Amino acid sequence: MKRILGTVLLLLSLCRAEGKNTLQIHTIDVEGGKAVLLISPSGESMLIDAGWPQLPNREPSAPRIAATAKALGLRRIDHVVISHFDGDHLGDVPQLAGLIPIGHLYDHGEFQPPARLNARFTAYDAFRKTMPHTVLHPGDRVPLKGVDVTVVASAGEFVKKSGPANPLCTKYPQAAVLETDVEDNLSVGLLVTYGKFRMLDLADLEAHHSHDLVCPVNPIGAVDVYHVNVHGQFKGMAPVLIEAIRPRVALLGNGARKGADPPSWPLLRNTPGLEDIWQVHYSTAGTPETNPPSDFVVNMEPADGGLPLRLEARKNGSFTLTNPRNGFSKTYRPRASR
Fold it and tell me: Which of 102, 104, 210, 313 is most open to solvent, judged by the fewest CB atoms within 10 Å of its CB?
């Protein structure tokens, strides 16, 4: 852990000054959990999810998140959005707050079992009652200064829709509902807009519910970056959503052995207009044909460096992704049209 954090801190400290006048988005490597840190040009910060708690076979994510935030010059995290209460997203928020102050908590409200998470949620619930806390509803905004963060899904409800029917809804049948994880489909989904740049992050919304989000009308429109549902697990893959939002880049916050499922690859790769897929980890379940080229994979196996995937977005709609493992960067020009 100390070796990994030392590498992360060094790399991030070298790029702290580069974030002025850009929106920074850091997908932190929490080994198949979720932790995405946004820093606005104003210096305000927002964390989407807190990774894993301490478990017998896992290191807690809170120290890695706090160290990353501090290396980027943050003295506190202004806004923490917990998308839903599964363990790989809920993490240990009280521990995180003990390492770096938290300004405000947001979530979808009440917990829906599995029972195995009751104790973890009870600790989180007790903590959120001690600090500013907001339950998010579709259409709400998280007040990240200089950036528009709109809630498009929360607690199984979706943002209001208007406009012409989405023709893709008849092209693609809706997937069956999976009842194995109720919390997935209560996820807070966020549309992040900075000038002409747009990123969609739906946390763990599964395929059936993703269909509901964009059908019969698509309220999202086109985006530049799609932070892929459920870490790239196949149960989150909804072709109707992916084609409706027409992303240029797909980001997968996966682990070596979790997410980036091989069957997900053709659904993403064949999306019209998609230029690249970036992954936090090389998927050991896949092959070279179902993983991106190595420049687009931050952590290779077995030499896992615990490195984050860095994105910098500009108001004109251009954005740059950087792989800190080898320094490879790619800049995407503003989209010609939407």
Answer: 104
For the chain, the residue count is 338
Q: How many other CB atoms are there within 10 angstroms of residue 152's CB atom?
A: 22
SS (H, E, C) the chain: CHHHHHHHHHHHHHCHHHHCCCEEEEECCCCCCCCEEEECCCCCEEEECCCCCCECCECCCHHHHHHHHHHCCCCCEEEEECCCCCHHHHCCHHHHHHHCCEEEEEECCCCCCCHHHHHHHHHHHHHHCCCCEEECCCCCEECCCCCEEEEEEECCEECCCCCCCCCHHHHCCCCCCCCCCHHHHHCCEEEEEECCEEEEECCCCCHHHHHHHHCCCCCCCCCCEEECHHHHCHHHCCHHHHHHHCCCEEEECCECCECCCCCHHHHHHCCCCCCEEEEEECCCCCCHHHCCCHHHEEECCCCCCCCCEEEEECCCCCEEEEECCCCEEEEECCCCCC
In angstroms, how far apart are the furthest CA atoms of the chain?
53
Calculate the CA dihedral of residues 12, 14, 19, 25 and round it to 10 degrees. -20
pLDDT tens, 128-153?
Answer: 999 999 999 999 999 999 999 999 99
Task: Give the CATH architecture of domain 2-314.
Answer: 4-Layer Sandwich (3.60)
- State whether the Cα torsion 24-283-258-68 is positive or negative: negative
Q: What is the pTM of this model?
A: 0.94
Domain ranges of the chain: 2-314
Closest CA to 317 of 300, 329, 294, 333: 333
Residue 16 pLDDT class (50, 70, 90 cuts): low
Amino acid at 316: N
